[in-house]
Specification:
The chain has 143 residues and is an alpha+beta fold. The protein has a single domain, classed as Heat Shock Protein 90. Helices cover 37% and strands 29% of the residues. α2 runs antiparallel to α3 and α3 runs antiparallel to α4. The protein is globular and about 40 Å long. It comes from Rhodococcus wratislaviensis. This is Anti-sigma factor RsbW.
Length: 143
């Protein structure tokens, strides 16, 4: 079975990324949170770390969904490694400075995670200003 092999590989902390693409809609947040939680649990994170990861993923996804055009996709990549969990969440945006590094949400992200960064790139589509990717890193057993 392919699924069992994938779970076994994740338990060995191989760093093989798991990618999830969902419609950029708030109704999809429980799915993204569930994947983040499952991978964090399989990666032997503490319960507090699992809660931090879920909250951070939820915050980033909510910010990006709020600024995406109607038919956009949210792409989430999760990689469990020997040192921790690396998450990249990206979406095409049509407006504004999302996520704002001066916002309360950004300060929450910096508190919950060991590393937070944002990168922007152009998109060839005239209706979308840019693609924004937020990278999160959480190391095992750290504050």
């Amino acid at each position: 079975m392919a699924e069992v092999d994938e779970v076994r590989r994740m338990k060995t902390r191989s760093g093989v990324p798991v990618e999830l693409r969902v419609a950029a809609e708030f109704e999809q947040l429980p799915v993204v949170r569930a994947v983040a939680e499952t991978l964090a649990v399989l990666g032997d994170f503490t319960l507090d770390d699992v809660a931090d990861i879920k909250l951070a993923v939820d915050e980033v996804c909510s910010e990006l969904i709020a600024a995406t055009p109607g038919s956009a996709e949210l792409t989430c990549s999760f990689a469990v490694t020997e040192t921790g969990l690396h998450v990249t969440i990206s979406a095409p945006l049509t407006r504004g400075g999302v996520p704002s590094r001066e916002s309360f949400g950004w300060h929450v992200l910096e508190t919950l995670m060991n590393g937070v960064s944002v990168s922007e790139g152009p998109v060839g589509n005239g209706s979308v200003e840019r693609t924004v990717a937020v990278e999160l890193v959480k190391y095992r057993g750290t504050i």
